[in-house]
What we know:
Layout: E1 3-4, E2 11-12, E3 18-22, E4 28-31, E5 41-43, H1 47-55, H2 58-64, H3 73-94, E6 98-99, H4 102-111, E7 114-119, H5 125-134, E8 139-142, H6 147-153, E9 161-165, H7 168-182
Parallel strand pairs: 7-8
Antiparallel strand pairs: 1-2, 3-4, 3-5, 6-9, 7-9
Helix pairs in contact: 3-7
Amino acid sequence: xxxxxxxxxxxxxxxxxxxxxxxxxxxxxxxxxxxxxxxxxxxxxxxxxxxxxxxxxxxxxxxxxxxxxxxxxxxxxxxxxxxxxxxxxxxxxxxxxxxxxxxxxxxxxxxxxxxxxxxxxxxxxxxxxxxxxxxxxxxxxxxxxxxxxxxxxxxxxxxxxxxxxxxxxxxxxxxxxxxxxxxx
Length: 184
């Protein structure tokens, strides 16, 4: 079922939009999975749309049928997205949708099955430039995790670069990564 963004009017399915709900006090909360009971307002997960709601909370008033407080909404959406990215990263690792290791990374980029390249925050500039130059249409994103933290997140040793390969869990991770980029 198609939903419309209360800030931009863009339509999309539930996977493309984020649901907002209001507490009895009027404070807006992010219902990232769209499962909370009650009325909700849908928004495109972009920085511009969220900031528009923060500036003009009346944009969600019609959908929620109440006055709302949108203070700090962008931070709440980013936090929910960060959590979703970390969960999707763990699931992608468990399903075998991530490739790591120098030559395996380069081979997966050349094969055409790569969806994205994920870099640790302290990945060497030389390695990042090499992998980025090999990415043609793939998303390249740096996560706020060190090589140790990135490796631990996927249950391995240190990892500076991960390649997301085409699979259902890989596409889910890519959707969350794209959302992360749009919220910057």
